[in-house]
Amino acid sequence: MPANLESRFDRLQLFVPEGDRASKAIPVDLHDRWVVRLLSLCGDLFGGATSYGRGVGVWKSGRGKLWDRVTVVEVWAKRDVPDREKKMERLERRLREMGRALRQEAVAFAINEYLVFLSARSS
Q1: CA-to-CA distance for 117 and 15, rounded, in angstroms?
Q2: Which residues make beta-bridge pairs with 7?
Q3: Which letter does DSSP use for residue 17 in this model?
Q4: CA distances from 15 to 8, 81, 85, 95 (A)
Q5: Is the pLDDT of residue 123 over 70?
Q6: Residue 113: what are its φ and ψ, rounded to 5°?
Q7: Residue 101 and residue 30 in contact, taking contact as beta carbons nearer than 8 Å
Q8: pLDDT-derived band of residue 68, with 50, 70 and 90 as boundaries?
Q9: Residue 19 burial by CB count (10 A; 0-12/13-18/19+): exposed, middle or buried?
Q10: DSSP-assigned letters across all residues of 34-56
Q11: pLDDT at residue 22 is higher than 70
Q12: pLDDT in tens, 26-64
């Protein structure tokens, strides 16, 4: 790849957790519905998206290691798309909504090399 080649796209990776299932009160299919919702939204906002099957994730917290099964939704968003900022705000609102539905304190997405955490608590 030429060194002077500059991307016209940002790579977004949306992390869809399986959700807090300790009580089994949230069915796994709720996770799957959120994957479909995000794919559809990203198709509308950015022209497309791809999801990668469930993987296993781990992170360290004050309670020790936390494990979850996660689906990654990947989006290549044009930097010069009209109303880009409004589209990103809409995506972030939907991610927060997903976090609340899946009983998460926060949700995360990556944009290029940056990781962004969004509070899922009701405002």
Answers
A1: 10
A2: none
A3: E
A4: 23, 23, 20, 9
A5: no
A6: -100, 10
A7: yes
A8: confident
A9: buried
A10: HHHHHHHHHHHHHS--EEEEEEE
A11: no
A12: 567 888 899 999 999 999 999 999 999 888 888 887 888
Residue 1's identity, in one-letter code, is M
Mean pLDDT of 14-27: 72
**Over the Cα atoms of the chain, what is R_g?**
15
Contacts of 34 (CB under 8 A, 6+ apart): 16, 98, 101, 102
In a 13 Å sphere around the CA of 24, the CA atoms on its Cβ side amount to: 0
Residue type for position 17: P
Instruction: Tell me which of 25 and 15 has the higher pLDDT.
Output: 15
Helix boundaries (H) for 65-117: 84-101
CA distances from residue 12 to 33, 40, 51 in whole angstroms, order as listed: 20, 15, 11
pLDDT of 23: 54
Q: Residue 28 contacts by C-beta under 8 Å, 6 or more apart in sequence?
A: 18, 21
